[in-house]
Design brief:
This protein is of the alpha/beta class. 26% of the residues lie in helices and 17% in strands. It has one domain (75-194, 204-394): Alpha-Beta Barrel (TIM Barrel), CATH 3.20.20.370. The two termini are 33 Å apart. It binds zinc ion. Zinc ion binds at residues 23, 164-165, 278, 282, 317.
Length: 415
């Protein structure tokens, strides 16, 4: 098996080790079978195709407007900004939590579109404002970083937000999730969702278009216009397109796929989204040999960077950081630093916020908003979501009483 094959091979053992914060490992894609059908009709750009929200859902879901913004106050501590993240959302719980082969992982690591639509207005109502990681630090000519001071109005709290794995691999097609992202005729980023009957809908079935619609109505939910960070791998292409030249160069639709994925990336950048590496292979970086890490970085730079652009953000696959609460050192860190990464984010729902900020790098913890954390919250085992929203108001009634997968046992990422 060549290096790429080693990286692409799934490693099921990793999922168990980092189950608290990990999506299931992404399977190696089925070569040549994955290109979206270019003849798929785009019925309309309306978001009304979304099938799951409750009939009573409205944009603000009954939440009051936030308190009026007060006088601007300087804020200069990146490590004190909380960071929430989600995965691609389940559109149809009957499939996503029921018939899908991915049901267990979906229950644990994902939320539904309806849950996301209930979360956003609650964050907004409580005065959270989305900020960019890059609003919180700058990189100096010598390569070191320095905290930046932002001005945050009284009654507002800066919040980092990221979404992982908007790759829509082909094996997800029956999982009740969106199948790809696209730019509609109005220039807006939308999703395609193929329902249980096989009918394709274009609308707002996942994080990016739902956030975009909410931000369009409530621009004050962002401090300066930033909407979030999208962390992407390369082992199945990006945004639902088989766009990785190292895997899909022989696909008859390869050039179209790269063009479509690039159009999505450009439209996202234009509306305030940023991109992070999530590794190419979605393997735990500390478990890679140094040679594998270098190959993984090479593949991301070859397959993903031409579409998204360069980034200095690393969101660790499985949230699996290089070290626990210590500081970075050693060859893996040196390799990532030499590739330009300056801000690193793991997963740890243990605290409202956690981070370290040094001249060489910033590292921070992200809180996983998913079935695991919502289930722990509703069972009284965690209160990390309490400052953000009332989980009981948010949780989708289609979930089982266990909220996460029945039988799931939480293991702290710190052991
Ligand atoms: Zn991931």
């Amino acid at each position: 098996m060549d290096r790429r094959g080693v990286l692409a091979a799934g490693s099921a053992a990793l999922a168990g080790l980092m189950a608290a914060c990990a999506p299931p490992p992404q399977d190696a894609p089925a070569t040549g079978s994955a290109a979206p059908d270019p003849t798929t009709p785009a019925p309309s750009s309306s978001a009304s195709a979304t099938p799951t929200p409750s009939p009573t859902f409205t944009d603000t879901d009954g939440q009051p407007a936030p308190k009026p913004a007060g006088a601007p106050v300087p804020w200069s501590d990146p490590t004190a900004v909380p960071h929430l993240f989600v995965h691609a959302c389940v559109v149809d719980p009957a499939r996503g939590f029921g018939t899908s082969a991915m049901a267990e992982g979906n229950l644990n690591y994902k939320i539904t579109v309806a849950e996301f639509k209930r979360i956003l207005p609650r964050l907004w109502s409580r005065g959270f404002v989305i900020v960019s990681p890059h609003e919180l630090y700058e990189t100096l000519p010598d390569g070191t970083i320095k905290a930046k001071t932002i001005m945050v109005p009284e009654n507002r709290t800066p919040l980092l937000f990221s979404v992982d794995d908007l790759n829509y691999p082909a094996h997800q097609k029956d999982a009740g999730l969106a199948t790809r992202m696209l730019v509609d005729t109005d220039g807006r980023v939308r999703t395609e969702y193929v329902d249980a009957d096989g009918t394709a809908h274009i609308g707002a079935h996942d994080v990016v278009p739902v956030m975009d619609d909410f931000m369009d109505n409530h621009p004050e939910f962002s401090l300066t216009g930033h909407r979030g960070v999208s962390a992407l791998t390369g082992n199945s292409g990006v945004f639902g397109y088989r766009s990785s030249v190292s895997l899909h160069a022989d696909s008859p639709t390869f050039a179209e796929d790269v063009k479509a994925a690039t159009a999505v990336a450009e439209a996202m950048k234009a509306t305030g989204w940023e991109f992070s590496s999530h590794s190419w292979s979605h393997h735990a970086i500390p478990k890679m040999s140094l040679a594998e890490l270098r190959e993984d970085c090479d593949l991301w730079e070859k397959d993903v960077q031409p579409i998204l652009g360069a980034t200095d953000l690393m969101i660790f696959p499985f949230g699996w950081d290089l070290v626990g609460t210590g500081t970075y050192e050693g060859a893996h860190y040196q390799e990532l630093h030499s590739r330009g990464f300056r801000a690193y984010f793991n997963v740890n729902p243990g605290n409202y916020t956690w981070g370290q900020f040094f001249p060489a790098y910033w590292r921070g913890a992200r809180i996983n908003v998913d079935g695991i954390t919502m289930g722990r919250t509703l069972r009284g085992e965690a209160d990390v979501l309490t400052p953000f929203f009332d989980t009981a108001e948010v949780v989708d009634p289609s979930r089982p009483p266990s909220i996460s997968a029945p039988g799931y046992k939480y293991v702290s990422p710190l052991g």
